[in-house]
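Reading group handout, session on sequence-to-structure problems. Before we discuss, look at one worked example. The prompt was deliberately terse, the way you'd type it at a terminal:

> structure Oxidoreductase NAD-binding domain-containing protein 1

The input record follows.
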Amino acid sequence: MDPLLSSSEPVVQTLFRLELRLKNSMVCAAIFAIPPLLRGTAGVIPGCSSFLRPKYAVLCYCTVNGNMKSRRRSDHLERTANDFRQEIISKAKVCGITSESEMVKRLRLAVTEKEFTFKAGQWVDFFIPGIAVVGGFSICSSPGLLEQKGELELAVKRTTHPPAHWVHTQCALNSEVALRVGGNFFFDPDPTDTPVDLVLIAGGVGINPLFSILLHVTDLHRKQEKGGTGYQIGMTNLLYSAKNTDELLFRKHILALTNAFPGKITCSFHVTQQSSEICENLQPYIKEGRISGKDLEKYISEKTLWYICGPPPMIESISKLLENLGVAQKNIFFEKWW
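And the output record:
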């Protein structure tokens, strides 16, 4: 066990020790000192100076990762050192555990801190008492669930990485952890913003933040149906690629949303290594092979925003396809998740 950490030590004290070690290692102390007037409205553009720059036309939607080149780092805090982080750290208790697939567990967490908020698409620093490594997991639920019930959800793939390993081997109902929201990748329009169409492109467990965005979109549609005066969202199209249908997370829920909002939400599933027969209810939505330029070109318009999350090679490939199709870089947003 790390000498700085103890399973009996209070969670908040553990967090302060982790932050102190992060600062001492000179990763990037600036992530803890975002000026209050800019917090939540401006992103941090990766770079040595960690300077802040608001994104003009898409400020209300999200900020874009500025570096397309992949730099593989094993530590979540290092990879995201220049990303926006909230100051609030909240205790949370595991209140639900389900198996989303053979490799992925879905956790529901009850958050203690009332001021804790997030935007659809963001992730959390995941602090586990007694474990030195800080996890980084994208939120897969909508902000609406947090507002209504004080809860959020994470879908965690089984790996040997200590936080993910803990989720799959030791996490139980009522386990206590702590969370801090971060990330420059989100969709959070104001009610008066110009309507846009969305294309959400996911690879593997990269579906998590995009599923959060999709659920947020459905909340916006429901507000409109009830006669609300919220944001007027346009079409939302999800393209989701995985090895096989068993690895298409949330597939039943996604299909239910397309049926609940016909003409407003569509989905297309792409499988690259399918060996078994595809079940009948999925067949109309399945394409074999990777997402291609031909799959993307039908959605191109000046009012379309493109959100991509998956392995870095996929991000780079899709971004290049979009560039070749004439999509402006300012309309492409991506989150690389290792």
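Points for discussion. First: The CA atoms of residues 62 and 185 lie 5 Å apart. Second: Confidence is low (pLDDT under 50) at residues 1-8, 20-70.
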